[in-house]
Amino acid sequence: MTDSVLIVEDDIDIANLIRVNLMELGITTEHESDGKKALKKALTKPFSLLLLDIMLPSLSGLDICNEVRKQKPEQAIIMLTAKNSEVDRVLGLELGADDYMAKPFSIRELQARVRSQLRKVNLIKQRDLPKVDDAFKQPPNQLDNYKIGQLTIDDKLHRATLGAHELDLTSTEYDLLKHFVKHPEQVFSRAQLLESVWGYGHSGYEHTVNSHINRLRAKLEVNPTDAQIIQTVWGVGYKLSAQGAN
Description:
Blueprint lengths: L3 E5 L3 H12 L4 E5 L2 H10 L4 E5 L7 H11 L4 E7 L3 H10 L3 E5 L3 H22 L11 H4 L1 E4 L2 E4 L4 E4 L2 E2 L4 H12 L7 H9 L7 H15 L9 E4 L3 E4 L6
Parallel strand pairs: 1-2, 1-3, 3-4, 4-5
Antiparallel strand pairs: 6-7, 7-8, 8-9, 10-11
Helix pairs in contact: 2-3, 3-4, 4-9, 7-8, 7-9, 8-9
């Protein structure tokens, strides 16, 4: 199935530039300039990825992101923000965006970011497809499951649980948690997490990591301000504490 992207952008020139360069990658696109129409389309049609501008007529990109995340938790979302609008970038990530790009942006970087998100989307789709050779595979516990204390990752079902409680994670939150569970006690810098989970490195995008860590903690920790599972190692980065996950 061809990847599809909904471009939500009220600047026609920017929207057309994005469309042309995504078509170069073999991606089908649709475009909406009005916020309310874009939200309706995002909720009723299956898109691999949403590219959301923040400033839109009738409904902001932040509002769209918030509502889509509530109803379609695994929807991939990249926010497009003004170059100097740090508050909007942080708020977009806190509302559930998987990534953001500041205008003006490099087309090659946009293509790389889009490809990175689509790889994740397609991995999820592939896991859900029945395989004819399933009967010959090793037991799921050997291939698809990772467990640290009360935390379990079932990669075949794309499911994370803490004890008996299934965690409601976005695709990127799931990938971030899986990375930590596969490497307990290992400390990762923000740059390393960007490279390993998002698939690129950029010194100016640490907020992407920070916001996803905060959202993970809100779903994992009894007291997110005193995190016991995803711990901060001051001056270095973050790690998953095996003891904290017990």
